[in-house]
Amino acid sequence: MSAPFTPHPHKARTGLHRLRHAGQYSLQGLQAGWGEKAFRLEACMAFVLLPAAFWLGRGWLEVAALAGTVVLVLITELLNSGIESAIDRIGPELHDLSKRAKDMGSAAVLLSVLLCSGVWAAALFQRFFHG
Q1: What digits encode the pLDDT tens for the residues 54-74?
Q2: How many Å apart are CA 36 and CA 106, to the nearest integer?
Q3: Are the C-beta atoms of residues 47 and 39 closer than 8 Å to each other?
Q4: Which of 38, 53, 74, 79 could form a disulfide with 66 if both were Cys (CB 3.0 to 4.6 A apart)?
Q5: What is the C-alpha to C-alpha distance for residues 2 and 64, in angstroms, rounded to an integer?
């Protein structure tokens, strides 16, 4: 007979107590992300690009698109790093499924960077070359 399932203690928390702990876990996740070179580079670029979005955007929709794509890059990088960490926890041996998971995470980052680049290029073109 197996032991009864005991849920994680976090699941028993409610209200503001749960929210406070969730916030702490999120901050720990950002701190872990900061330990990744790619995330640090993208975060430093976001430090420049997010204020620039307010200068470049000609309305709240443009600002939201510019800033949103920058934040999307950060989000996908954190998710990719999480996938890589989970795969690395399983073991160091090479496996086709592990490679596939890591490659797909990397592809997600690439697509978010391409989207961000395209939105920023279009906004810059509109601002400086199209009137």
Answers
A1: 999 999 999 999 999 999 999
A2: 14
A3: no
A4: 53
A5: 52
Mapped to the 3 state alphabet, what secondary structure does the chain carry?
Answer: CCCCCCCCHHHHCCHHHHHHHHHHHHHHHHHHHHCCHHHHHHHHHHHHHHHHHHHHCCCHHHHHHHHHHHHHHHHHHHHHHHHHHHHHHHCCCCCHHHHHHHHHHHHHHHHHHHHHHHHHHHHHHHHHHCC
Give the predicted TM-score (pTM) of the model: 0.86
Q: Residue 127 is which amino acid?
A: R
CA angle 68, 25, 4 (to 5 degrees): 125
| Residues labelled as active-site residues | 77
Nearest residue to 85 (alpha-carbon basis) of 112, 105, 71:
105
